[in-house]
Specification:
Length: about 140
């Protein structure tokens, strides 16, 4: 059975739009878990991180990162849902990124190698300058 771990989020000026985010995890043992999807809001973890948790009323809550996966996380919001964002997503995948969809306009991106991070950010900066998208940094490993 798959499990989830919850992250308490600090909301400022209505962002993020939720006070908690849950992520899928793989249980390593009764105290350690591997993050199994890309976070959309928390800046504490990235895909593949090994974390510890506390249990409160049967719910697992993030405690700390035990081992960093080396992955970085970015979030991208596209300004126009009707515009074809496929080219951007395809390019990110060509750079070796994993992409997870919240909606057609909002994606989370996992970057596996630190050396690819500069290329990804440079590409997103160029797209932002053309007012195609905006992005934010989640957790970055350099």
């Amino acid at each position: 059975m798959r499990k989830k771990i919850f992250f308490r989020l600090e909301v400022s000026d209505g962002y993020p739009p939720v006070a908690e985010e849950s992520l899928w995890i793989n249980e390593i043992n009764d105290r350690l878990y591997e993050i199994d999807n890309i976070p959309f809001y928390t800046r504490d973890v990235s895909l593949g991180d090994i974390v510890s948790a506390t249990q409160e009323e049967g719910i697992l809550y993030f405690r700390s990162v035990i081992r960093d996966s080396g992955n970085s996380t970015l979030r991208v919001i596209f300004f126009d849902e009707e515009r074809s964002n496929v080219c951007v997503i395809d390019y990110l995948k060509q750079l070796g990124c994993e992409v997870e969809f919240f909606s057609k306009k909002f994606i989370a991106v996992s970057i596996k190698k630190a050396e690819e991070l500069a290329d990804v950010i440079s590409y997103l900066e160029a797209q932002a300058a053309e007012e195609i998208l905006d992005y934010e940094i989640g957790k970055v490993v350099i």
